[in-house]
Amino acid sequence: MTKPKGEGEQHQWTMVIDLDKCTGCAACVTACYAENNVPVVGEEEVSMGRHMGWIRIERYWEGEYPDVRARFIPVLCQQCGKAPCEPVCPVFATYHSEVEHLNIQVYNRCIGTRFCANNCPYIARVFNWFAPDFPEPLHEQLNPDVTVRSRGIMEKCTFCIQRIRQVEEKAKMEERPIADGEVQPACAQACPTDAIIFGDLLDPNSKVAEVARSRRGFKLLEDLGTEPAVIYLKGGDIYGV
Amino acid sequence: MSNKGITRRQFLQGTAALGAAVVASGCTINLKGSEYLEPYVRAPEHALPGESVWYATTCRQCPAACGLLVRVHQGRAKKIEGNPLHPVNEGKVCARGQASLQVLYNPDRLRWPVKQRARGSRDFTGLHWNEALNALFEKITATDPQRIAFLGGEMPDSLLWIVEKFLAAIGAPPPVLYSTHYAWEGRRVLRAVNRTLFGKDRLPVYDLANADVVFSFGGGFLSTELSPVHYNRAFGRMRGRQDRGGPRGVVVHFEARLSQTGAPADRWIPILAGTEGLIALALGRLLLDMGLARNPAVRPFYAGVNVDEIAELVEVEVGRLVDLAKLFGEAERPLAIPGGVVAAHTGGFNAVLAVQLLNVLMDNLGQEGGLWLAPNPQVGGLKPETEPASLSEVQALVDRMKAGEVDLLLIDGSNPAYSLPATLGFPEALAQVDTVITFSHFVDETAVLADYVLPVHTPLESWGYQVVDNGTDRLTIACQQPVVQPYFDTRDMGDIFLFLAQAIDAAREVLPWQNMIEFMKSRVAVLQQLGMEGNFPLDNEADAWVAWRQFGGWWTAEPTWEAPQLVWQPSQATGVTAEFEGGTEYPLLFYPYESIALTDGRGANAPWLQELADPMTTGMWRTWIEINPETAKELGVKHDEVVKVISPYGEVEAIVYEYPAIHPHVVAMPLGQGHTDYGRYAAQRGANPLRLVGSKTVPTADDLAWLSVRVKIVPTGRKQKLPRLESTVGVDRAREIGFPG
């Protein structure tokens, strides 16, 4: 079948997060704030659970002192194949892209019902309770490729769609396929341990396809049937000491 | 002093050139006035509408000197990314480095030089740069050079080089450098131990990527210490071997508190703070006794070591110590890493020595996956002579100030009023100094006590270089260049001193450059003289000058780190444990640690870092105290209750966090908050744990022994919710109903 003109290649953008490598350093979190113009909401709002980070490091305590461990899991929008957030949106602000296999949030359709956030089992969606505040000259840091969301709008991780688009357009202009590793969301780019790997699962030779085959792989709340596009690799352990 | 050749009038004429824009405007500097529509036919250099450009430079948020690529769009810095070619960080960045943007675009930055009406009044009057520079010039020339003092912090090597040459030329004492961060990472102690063991005054570099069993003694190498991005990169490689058919690298972490560096480790062995050295001694002894030591030459060190006694003291069973020794001794590439906390007490030097001797015993010196010495930074005279000061040297400066022997104090890259231990009495000493001038970007605690604040360019607007002194296998001269035009009416600190030098004969001879660009260009010739193969050819000076900036630094083609050679004559181990101040009324050991977000407090004015959840507690915006849940129960305190933390030196308030992974006799607090000034995001929130620390020193290294006080906890009866990501609602409810049984 010939592709419709102007349509890009088919991709299945996938992220693999190796929990054996994650050190909880939070470089990904700040990278995301910087890339995606995520607002800082301040102490009071955070205390009310209104933190707006698109990616967060969840820390789980295991066991009791002295045999206690802490485990980190970076959690972001899982870009579900069967996303619970999508069917509940009355205005189609959140929908599924069949081309990119991404879960898209259209800000200018959103009317702020927050049904999607209510339905997201990963708590990946955050709501703008107030207009974002970037006191002058902090606004100079804003990424011109990403909309600053206004009050009453739902937002979430986009897999840095702006970076995907840029690479797609560049590859199209140069009439070549996208190379593996060419698309890097801000979190994966910053990650000092390379715990976050990003790429196209449809490309069997990509790094992401390779690590996705690991025996350590699992998906978050897999039994819900959400078909996440984020694959986690479980952390290891030693025995005998 | 040899500045007689110049009159005030001539100097004024000179400053007019430097501050031409200021003089021309003739009124308070108003950036709005300089905004006008500019057709793109006259676009500024490299500024293409709608297209971003990336400039290579060097991170200044900590001394690790990671290479950055800064995305610049229409003349504004937008994003900090890692430089993939740079040998320190190989394309990666940490949260703190990325927040450099919020130093540059911080809404509380000083926009022009100011003079304070009376110290502490916070009543600042704006100055023109020519007025400010004249004031600076007059003070420097009118003061007896012996009565001038310069207090610095983590200055770039380029700037420190200029300042020390300038001070020497005018006959003033050399700069005194103090940084809380240096003390917390144990820099002086690590170097002192390397001097003793290997005869080289260098920082260690650990080949973490190739090690297979790592024993981390309170290490903070994945958090803030030494070169955290480098070691995170190495950690990822170490763990990644399992996907390439190799053995998975394992880490065992010994610390009183499970830190962020300890969390990804495979085992955490909780021990009392200050006993890390004892564990190292016991393991060393066991390695020898079990015949696992590969280099028994240092056996005499372990003569008096009794494993049973130590096992009892550290509350780890002998059998477990034997298992650990076996794991370490039978590993192909074992590696021991001492963290800053091991160095931070009165037995710190001996404790770090005991840990490094595990590397000697396992004969991993200069081996793959072993201990190395950083490349020699003292080449070609690029590295300044001034080293971070000992606490005694800082104390001596404060004493001189107290005695009225300092008339002019210049402060750069340091916030001593916030960071120096209260017992040193810095603010009181400052009152005895006639004139205090700081070069801070912000009105911080020290600026409030100063007469003049001359705001200099932020790192992303400045020139400079840094000779990397650890965290890389090869000699690296990182290049720092402005990625944007100065946003406010500030000056490059280097330009200021080069400019002053032009007016003082003796200084002009050693600092003949007109400005930082000339100075930086002249360093290329110095690189050429090294005669080493690097990442780009140096034969053509002009090409090399371009390449140095494009690559973000020059580094050797081959590794130049050195295999340590043991020169030490072993003597019996002594005093590896900590002594604590505070009698029985202070029952808990106080463990202040560097925040992964705010470091030692420098990051507190960046909103991204304030709202960055601490990886362990998920707390932010405030100061908490980590208490073992059992201890909390005994004290009758719970999550989100405010307590007073009292040491023999002072008291602060903090919010209780019941931390399940901390020794019951230890309480921990993150550094960074408790600012009275330093901008809207930092001021008046949380507490400064430095207020509780005395001024004991680590023998031999003469550094601050910050692990040396006990505290008591007194409930206040008040509640304050710690702003944090995690919710304890379910956990609290489960506890209430007695789940799971």
Provide a quick synopsis of the model.
The complex is a heterodimer of chains A (241) and B (741). Helices cover 18% and strands 18% of the residues of chain A.
Cα(first) to Cα(last) distance of chain A is: 59 Å
What is the count of β-strands of chain B?
Answer: 27
User: Domains counted in the coordinates of chain B: how many?
Assistant: 3
CATH classification, class level of the largest domain in chain B:
Alpha Beta
Give the mean pLDDT of chain A: 92
Tell me the structural class of chain B: alpha/beta
Strand content of chain B: 15-25%
Let me know the largest β-sheet of chain A.
4 strands, mixed
User: How would you spell out the order of helices and strands of chain A?
Assistant: EHHEEEEHEEHHEHEE
What report would you give on this structure?
The complex is a heterodimer of chains A (241) and B (741). With 241 residues, chain A is α+β, with helices and mostly antiparallel strands. Chain A has one domain (13-233): Alpha-Beta Plaits, CATH 3.30.70.20. Chain A has helices at 27-36, 43-47, 115-119, 161-173, 186-190, 207-212; strands spanning 13-18, 56-62, 69-75, 94-97, 102-105, 126-127, 154-155, 196-200, 217-218, 230-233. In chain A, the strands form 4 sheets. Chain A has a 4-stranded mixed β-sheet. Chain A is built from 6 helices and 10 strands, in the order E-H-H-E-E-E-E-H-E-E-H-H-E-H-E-E. With 741 residues, chain B is α/β, with parallel strands linked by helices. In chain B, 30% of the residues lie in helices and 17% in strands. Chain B is built from 25 helices and 27 strands. In chain B, the strands form 7 sheets. Chain B has a 7-stranded mixed β-sheet, with helices on both faces. In chain B, strands 21-23-22-27-20-24 form a 6-stranded mixed β-sheet. Chain B has a 4-stranded parallel β-sheet with strand order 11-10-9-12. In chain B, helix 18 links the parallel strand 15 and strand 16. Chain B is globular. At the A-B interface, helix 1, helix 2, strand 2, strand 3 and helix 5 of A face strand 3, helix 4, helix 9, strand 11 and helix 12 of B.
